[in-house]
Structure prediction request, 313 residues.
Amino acid sequence: MEIIWYHPSQSATAWIRGLQQRLPQARVRAWQPGDEGPADYALVRSPPAEMLRGRATLRGVFALGAGVDEILKQLEQHPGMLPDSVPLYRLEDTGMARQMQEYAVHSVLTWFRRFDDYQLQQQQACWQPLPPYARETFTVGILGAGVLGQSVAEGLKPWGFPLRVWSRSPKTIDGVTSFAGRDALQPFLQGTQVLINLLPSTPETINLIDQHFLAQLPHGAFFLNIARGAQVVEADLLAALESGQLKAAALDVFQVEPLPEAHPLWSHPRVTITPHNAAVTLIDEAIDYIARAITQDQAGETPQGRVDRQRGY
Ligand SMILES: NC(=O)c1ccc[n+]([C@@H]2O[C@H](COP(=O)([O-])OP(=O)(O)OC[C@H]3O[C@@H](n4cnc5c(N)ncnc54)[C@H](OP(=O)(O)O)[C@@H]3O)[C@@H](O)[C@H]2O)c1
Prediction:
């Protein structure tokens, strides 16, 4: 079995060593331009088109992340880069769910306990206890109820906030209210005090979070974006922060990354920024997951995490 690997910025060493250990029957190599040798599986992040082109005998391509928007965009830009018959898989959880829980719990508690307000007060040496929020109306609404959205809902449960999710299909999750489809978006947003975005970036969700969208939240709501920057119209987000429609935002992802130095989001007093690392790919967990999937595929079973290319996630 031949496996080719490509990542634009990571060293191949740990990946190849780990894959060889878990799949001793495989030969794993870092793909280099010009390599047209045989391959049964490809493990990729932002692969050059020539790496995959013409490889109709591949049994699977594994994206080295949870989101596949980048590779689907590449496939659109380079027709024929990967035959439709080749299954595309993504990483499900592999340690990212816990990282997302940490980020979301931290942000929600910061806002609920008004630590953001106290941080601003401290800059003025201002000693002023503020009225607390009521837990029973501090509703957290999660856009997306997939692997990561559901995990974040689970992570927030111990804190007792009302929880709701919005997805395409209805969900049954103990202690969480499910809203499904476009018709349910308005009631979902109207009752959401803290909005957490965990949607995949697809043609349907790009620029979804705009002025009209944000205006449906209660005045003074909070926004956490840990999915993709392309889903948010940043000028509208800034306007919502200026008007007080949004009280604060924590942002991990942006339309342009790295966020340009002169971007007004950097200096907004109510915005917290992290450099697109809300949940990073953990190599050992990812290798375990991919090795398991390849073993299942070799045994004629269907591995988890197959992407529906038409749907876009
Ligand atoms: N910032 C970071 O560090 C980072 C790290 C990892 C992942 N991410 C992002 O997180 C995203 C979510 O990951 P995941 O593993 O949870 O994905 P997932 O399991 O595929 O879940 C996606 C969820 O979004 C819902 N959805 C998709 N399109 C929708 C639409 N048009 N309207 C309503 N709901 C829609 C799906 O609904 P159904 O359940 O009905 O299908 C599903 O519940 C990834 O795509 C990636 O972009 C970011």
